[in-house]
Amino acid sequence: xxxxxxxxxxxxxxxxxxxxxxxxxxxxxxxxxxxxxxxxxxxxxxxxxxxxxxxxxxxxxxxxxxxxxxxxxxxxxxxxxxxxxxxxxxxxxxxxxxxxxxxxxxxxxxxxxxxxxxxxxxxxxxxxxxxxxxxxxxxxx
Length: 141
What we know:
Elements: H1 4-12, E1 18-20, E2 31-34, H2 39-45, E3 49-52, E4 64-66, H3 75-85, E5 90-93, H4 102-115, E6 120-123, H5 136-140
Parallel strand pairs: 1-2, 2-3, 3-4, 5-6
Helix pairs in contact: 3-4
């Protein structure tokens, strides 16, 4: 959970924000990233740019960007890889790694850890990552 003061900061900040799947609308994301086969539904239900890893539309859309990367099992991994590929060297994950099995959570941790030598990645709270914690207030300064 994000407290109301931090929610407001995140929603109003001008930093680039990417939402995962259908989450995070209240933070006014600049884009969404998806790895499941739900591109048509996401395009119908959200107005942001959509970054897709595994699915393409049959027609051209200026709102859709294909991110050519190997899907490693979790959208949060693809999101971090996408941001790194765009030159972002500091990332704050406002989310957690608590879904699915312990093995899946460990896979996510391992893949995120591989990105940290060249990109500084923080977690908002103790979100079950091997990452330092940083508040939204601190990150947005």
